[in-house]
Protein 1
Amino acid sequence: MTASYILEQIVNGIILGSMYALIAIGFSLIYGIVRLINFAHGDIVTIGSFAMLASAVALKIPFPLAILVVLVTGAATGMMIERIAFRPMRGAPQVTGFIASLAVAIVMENIGIMTLTAQPRSFIVPAYLSKFIAIGPLSVRAIDLAIVVLAVLLMAALALFVRFTRTGMAMRATAENYNVARLMGINIDRMILLAFAIGSALAAAAGLMWGSKYSQISPLMGLIPGLKAFVAAVIGGVGSISGAMLGGYVLGLAEVLLVGLLPPEYSGYRNVFVFAVLIIILLVMPNGLLGHSTEERA
Amino acid sequence: MLWLEDVHVRRGGTHALQGIDVEVRRGEIVALIGANGAGKTTTLSTISGLLRPQRGRIHFEIEGRRIDIGRIRAERIVAAGISHCPEGRQIFGNLSVQENLQIGAYLRHDREAVGNDLRSIHALFPILRERANLPGNRLSGGEQMMLAIGRALMSRPKLLLLDEPSLGLAPRLVEQIFDILQRIRGDGMTVLLVEQNAAMALDLADRAYVLETGAIKLSGTGKALAQNADVRRAYLGVA
């Protein structure tokens, strides 16, 4: 096992972690504000990849512009899910919200299979993105580099927005206390909708990355990344945005390194490793890496 | 400037307010006193729009116009000029002290005036400037109360609803808070105050209402109520 092999695995872990992190942020952002896990979040990943297929391949929109289409489509889908499945359930027991989002997930997946068939479609990125670029001793595909750069840009933009803008501050206030936020004049319906829009746009971006990297997409492709990103969000401390980012990278690196460094006959146990990492971290830090002690909203 | 007429509120199966009439005039400090569960907090939450009255009318007069605020959303009531400083302070613990004050001015777009108001809040509560960058949950109870009042004032209200400012505070701090209320009133603010510390509330208030199990039992000037035998027995601990 050479140093360059290990370095290569680390790079792969960062690429995978970037995608997990983007999806995990949505889980945390939405949980932070409505205290519910959106089980349909993984399906937004699927929506994002198909939006990319439709805009870049079918409609031949230039790739960078198509990214914008994907973000908007993701945001719109997330907002629709909030209006249909979450808003009517507000004030109902938590379990009701979980079931509602699970129902949305099942409906979305089945509509996908009915209209698009479960057959995977190939998704070929433009030639300039499949080229290899040499960075020091490493040679990285341009698309992989683009994934990491885009992910970091999106996360930085989100962090700045939440930290420094008036609306970002209002979102944080809403996440803490609905009633007092309303007393400040904040329209909490709008903040909740915004959290869904942002979280879903990021998940859709992860979907286009996933499709571009693995060159094929299908109506159920979002399930596994969604599930693992949920694990990443829990590892980071669900509700914490920086935790979700950290959790995504921890999980991506752990998964790739464990698979890459252990003897090849264990590589089939990839998902076992993922959940083992989750269990070990939660045993040591029950609130996740950056989570606060979880308290229910009064 | 504020009139409640025959206001009824049901809350989780109980008839929390059973037709109350309250009036607050411009420039007054009006106190609402009563035992736990009498409906004091419910009254404030109904005025600020967090709860909806099942019956009755709530009118608020602003710039010579009378508006019916009984059916409008809490966000719009703040915009109309009523600021509610809720029970238990409820500052945003994860937001910094400075951000808590800024969010109080969420609906305002007059940046310069907001900056001026921030300075006058800092003058009123110098500790809030010293602690500006600390998260709200790192403040002591008294500091949190000051922050809660400061935050409520940042919307530049015409009417301040203040719920239990003395709750859980040491007597020295309570006096300090009440001094501040005097000063705020001196600046022309109108205050509707809910208080368990009836002695201090009646001392400060121009007029007061005694609330018992969701109904107004007595009303009058602060002085008169402080002399009233029933009030003295029930709320002032005087035999």
Protein 2
Amino acid sequence: MADPPPSNPSHDDTAVADRGSAPGMPLWVKVFGAIVIVLVLLFVFLHLTGNSLGGVVPHGH
Amino acid sequence: MTLPPGLRKFVLTTHITASVGWLGAVAGFMALAVAGLRSEEADTLRAAYLTMPLVGWFVIVPLSLASLLTGLVQSLGTSWGLFRHYWVLAKLVINVLATIVLLLHMQPVSHLSRIAAETPLSLAGFGRLRVQVLADAGLALLVLLLATTLAVYKPRGLTPHGWRKQQERRPPARQAALSQP
């Protein structure tokens, strides 16, 4: 859902970039990244240890 | 590569339809999971768990793949790019992870369906598995709502790659002015 493409020079990102240095990572990105890492680690841990809610599902009939 | 306006609109329409359709299909799946968890009647159990893999394999999985594919085309074919804005990157991560987890967790759904087809009342012994299916649907719903929110609000934030690309696009006169002390 990336529409319309950015074209407005008064866009906030442009304003930040006008300062002459690369903008820092916004707080929401740090929070999002931390949540993703925790969820992925939790998912991998639960599946490797066979402790997911449903336990091990038998294959076939 | 920039898509022509007509094609861009078409891909965008397809992307929105697939993404929102995915969200709606998961909501329907969740209703089935709730019905299957709460009911003790054989007919309801059989109906709920036999319908789940059909909705999963023929509606949710195709919509998730269509959402991912059209999202990639839409971002790469416009000036938004795939790695320039954090919100686009966040949506990509959500989409890829949700699709992987969905494909992995279709296995317990198919397993419950097989049991429901043969001995629906024996599903009582698979309480944790039925809860897992409901929890998966609930988590998927939250994650897809988050992706929709990101797409609408487009929170600001350029990645270092996006910032470099933006600098490259600046007119030389403006770049010179910016470099003045």
Protein 3
Amino acid sequence: MTQLRATLFLALLVSLSWSSYSLAQQELTTLTTARGYRLQIFSELLPLEINHIHSWELLLTDATGAVVSEPDIQVSGGMPDHDHGMPTLPRITRTLDNGRLLLQGVRFHMPGYWQLLFEIKTDHGSDSAEFNFTL
Amino acid sequence: MKRFLTIVLASGCLLGAGLAVWQQIPAPLPDTWSPAELALIRSLSLSQLPPLPADPSNAFADDERAAELGQKLYFDTRLSGNGTVSCASCHRPELMFTDGLPLAVGTSGGTRHTPSLVGLSYSPWFYWDGRKDSQWAQALAPLEAPHEHDIDRLSVARLVTGDQSYQVMYQEIFGPAPPLPSGGIASPLGREAFIAGWNTLDAAQREAINRIFVNVGKSIAAYQRKLQPGRTRFDNYADAIAEGEERTGNGQLDSTELAGLDLFLNKGQCINCHNGPLFTNHDFHNTGVRVLASQLPPMGRYDGVRIARRDPFNCLGEYSDASSGECIELEFARDTNELVGAHKTPTLRNVSWTAPYMHGGQIGSLEDVIRHYDEAPVSMLSHNEAKPLALRSVEHRQLVAFLKTLSAPLATPARWLTAP
């Protein structure tokens, strides 16, 4: 178990440092949605830390690479191993000049395995993406 | 037949003896910490504690004069209806700002255990259920509570602006105080007589009283921000242990304490909630602590966050100094059903000096706290987030030994620890 945790921890560190190029904020990860769209997540805080409330920026692009304008994205999730959700209710508060959506109120309060779900609604219908990671 | 019974009995005895020995023998541990374990250990060290975060809702939070005024107020028993209770009556400096009692006793008996104030200014939430989102707003609530200070808001404002020992200090920090009604008692909370008096006042009078009252809270909070933990043996260990070095390398912790630290990080899962340099995630969890006799099962944070949202003294309210966008914790606070019965994770710093434990002081010793988490009983309301740990007897003792390495005299200069 200890070995597994160490591996996951190192994997997260490596993956975060590889993806940490900077636009307005550093890229945390890129997800592929069920519909095949790309959801890029940029974080104000990298590497992610527990107990630090911060913001993310989301950018949704379709299969042709075009930015999907003003999608409705709801974020939920938590720690399945502990039967609880996030300590906050993060939500998108506005669209930034660069087309990204500002997601405020992100905080994680425990080390371990987290699962986040992004439920997306666009003019083309419903979509979703999952972000699973270990802190 | 007799021989068969003898064999069965002998086997049973051997098995029982084996189990008893197994309960008591320390498990062998690796000689060194893994990189992930080492990172976790270092994350718990006091040297990783960041500077005290600003409180945007309190423009006087780091004003030295406000802290001095707050210290005077903190120890003043005149801030109570019967003249015998001060903040220091329950949050006693000599007990790491706790009272050693299961339930607080102010002007009468309370319903919650007195938490320590040490390092509390790092928390975004206050009270066991997080019903307050700033230390200044928290500091005000006990004043009007009938079982704590039991004093009305107007009397507090009158004391601070009328008493010679406070008048000059108050004016130097906050400027001239607005005029107050000359007589009577008045408060929007607390006893019926307080509320009746409040109902006779006009809006301008209420506003004047509120402004002074809020400044009292902001001063007490400025004082409480001085109360910070000191370096412990654990911190010395965490800062000195090097990668690849034997666990016992720097000699700060003995083998029992180190085994306890291993359990804290791994099998015991304590670090899930008691994390960071203050050994708390400042969040709320239901851990199946038994309900107090004569009390209904508390709703905990589920109610607490709702109370905080409608509190006129919250970060978004007119008495807060925060600007738009600075009340992130309040604006994005979770309020979901899983918070039913959830209470705040307390710091473990100085934990061996701050018994009893839990929001109602339900558990008297660290040994019993470990037993509670080992069993993870079913919660009367909602669900217990913790799972049974299957710890052995020796592991209980090891965890307690580790917890005892987390106490040390405060970093706060002695002049702040007594009445001025």
Protein 4
Amino acid sequence: MLTTTLILFPVVAALVVGILPLPREATAGLALLAALLEVGLWITALTQFDFETGGLQLGTTHEWVESVGISYSVGLYGFSLWLVGATTVVFAAAIGYAMWVGRERTRAYHALMLLLLGAVVATFAAQDLLLFYVAFEAMLIPLYVLVGVWGGERRQAATVTFVIYTMAGSLLMLASVVAFGVTEGTFSLTEGITSDNTWIFLGFAVAFAVKAPLFPLHGWLPLAYREAPVEVAAVLSAVVSKTAIYGFVRIGLPTFPEPADTLSGLILVLASAGLVYGSLLAFRAPDLRGVIAYSSMAQMGLITIGVFAFDDLGLDGAILQSVAHGLVSATMFLLVGMVERRCGTSDVDVLGGMARGRPTLATVVLIGGMIALAVPGSATFAGEFLIMAGAYEQGWGYSVVVALGIVLAAMYTLRVISAILHVKPGRAVREEALDLRLGELALVLPLLLLLLGLSLWPALVSESAFVASSLEDFLP
Amino acid sequence: MIDTPSVDWLALSPTLALLGAAGVALLSVLLPEWMRKGVAAVAALLGFAASAALAGWVFDESSTRELLLEGTMVQDRLAALAQVILGVIGVAVVLTSWSDRRRENNAEYYALLATAGAGMAFFVSAEGLMTLFLGLEWFSLCLYILVAFDSERETSLEAGLKYLIVGGLGSAVLLFGSALVYGATAELGFGAIAAADSSSDAFLYAGLAMILAGLAFKVSAAPFHMWTPDVYQGSPTPVTAFMAASTKVAALVVTLRILVTAFPAQADTWTIAVAVLAAISLAWGNLGALAQRDVKRILAYSSISHAGFMLMAVAANSEVGTEALLYYLVPYSAMSVGAFAVVAARERELQAPVSLESLAGMGWERPYHGIALWIFMLGMAGFPLTGGMFGKLFVFSAAYDAGDWWLVLIGVAATAVSLGYYLNVVRWLYMRTASALQVAVAGGSPPRDSALDIAIAAAVTVTIGSFFVVQPILDAASDAAAALPF
């Protein structure tokens, strides 16, 4: 029941926010309140979740289309609970940021953000193949408008490429869903039905690879992340991309064990290529948004390696890294947004020297950056280490790639830090550009505190994502 | 005394109700001028509503199929379900028509609309080649006039002429095909044709092909679609809505019925033919729509592509396929009528044909119509939260089940292409502003048009409702499918 509430509450809130003719501030405030209440709902779910027994909890199942075996079936596993948690927190920060900057057409904007929140949570909770498809597709509806209306100058091109890539993947997934449903007579994911059809798995894999994105299906990423409003880019990179990981973990491995095993070599190679290539692109990107966009792609490659390591270490690491990267990436995107608001650009060449006279900004960027580059002791380090250890089973080469990825991450993150804070003041940095305001700090600080907490106790997520007894359900 | 066949009046009541309404609407010319439009419109509205309600009753009564009028007509749930859908479409079209700026001939307009509806209700329960042709001509003749009804507009006249010529050709082909089938089997009834053992007769195959082609004209399946964009564009918009929804419902149901009941022995041949028609329609409709600027033309090409999707279900030649087709018709009709209703509203506001440019910024200025059109476009593209998604899912499932996996892939590719124009409409609605394009916008508040707004609300409700309430529709479709001999 609680899972249904987690899905429906933001949707209802979206309708209320969209319909009530309130003034701008009130509308945005209402949306933020709804997002915070959603975090509260998630905390309730967290307290009710029994981590000892694991398995699917807090779920509901209703018949939907009985004759073809489609049901409204939702519920949370340990790992879904953590992914939903990251989602609610990141959305609250993003909606808060949108309120802070005062987005135009406030009612439509916040209604769409809340709809997106509902769709993402539904994706993480879906226990029916068709419901998963519905939620996965439903994310695209608000995203299309959010990027297309409130985006930057080249937003139209961004939406077109984004939609073409995503829909190409989604429609292949639809074909796979149809083929699976017709062959098996049900769409349920809870009955432990497996399929050994490689083609059907491939349809899903392509859809997830586009959403993540994995190399070489990342063509939509640079434009979308650069042109989207910065908080939408944060949401895209922090949580929407993680639906792909959820798809691999919840659908790919348990439902298609044989095909996943057959194709794991290919996926691991592509993920490794994405990790290295994305890191190099991030190092070379001319603007901060580009760096974070490509680093997100690299991180998704890394997490995919963890998933396809096919062992407990890799899976635990993948979930921990998903949560940690979600928080880090949202923090970094919001920080870039704050820098952009001060300097009007995120071009690395014209920025710099912002540390002088702006101690709060400097501290926050430094802490965020340190966690992003996986400094030992941070949550991201723990995640990457688990993935590296897990990948060793599949071949030591993958561990080397992961290690290389960590080194490259240090390079591009240090580049971000120094580009913002150090060197001599850039052309775009005006003397009077302010330090972080209290409102901005209030958005970033909770994210940083959560990250620090997770750094102190990464096992909170990694040990509870999968209960040992049910882990084999998720391994082929 | 002449022996008259026994008549089951209840089974014919959906048709008769509409004929009665048409009569009342026509007689309204005797009334003072200020009452005419109201009386005629209300008569048509009640006629369609009564037709739908009576068809619902017939649906309830006909758990077994029964032949009527010496075996020329049939009373079964397939026909009754189609008649319910047709009646509801009719109600929405009357509501959409209400605020048209036509000054005269309102009585004739609504009478023709109701008569066309009656013809379609008759057509879907035809069980013989004669009644089939009779029904086809009955509603086609009404539509020829309705298409050309705005006789002061050249495009309307042009559309009427085109429709008349191409439609006449289609009817002639159908008639010729019927004659060949009659020649080969010496039978007119569908069941009797199937029973007559003449499956190797070349005339029968030629006749089958010509009947299929004749019906494909009405379904506007490629390559028999040439008339569609011009006629849809030129007709008065409510008439376009009526044609896009009703004609398709009627023609597809009849296509399915005649193929399954009269030609089961030739199924190996016609399933391939229909699958090819579906594939061509999908390709042609979607690619054609990409090049259009006029919204009515876009919707016309989109209707061709939807014909392709629905023919996929016919090609499956199975109970699942029939259910898929009947389910698909429900959200499709709603989205079609709804989209054309929004176009009609915009047309009335701007007093000009609606191109993509004239939609610029409409989503922000006219939020209600904007959101409605957004929903219809997403539905037609098969996005979730609309019945369009389940329609596509069921159609694909039926095709996959029948072994036509290649058709599923074509359908998936067609859907991908279709996003190009459906989302383009959304882009114009929300991502272009009218000020940037210097499009003359009426400004201020939109003209009040409650009737049309009710029709749009109903269409939105059905579009979204059919996503959540799938099983009841599917059950009804499954009952209807049981009437066919699979």
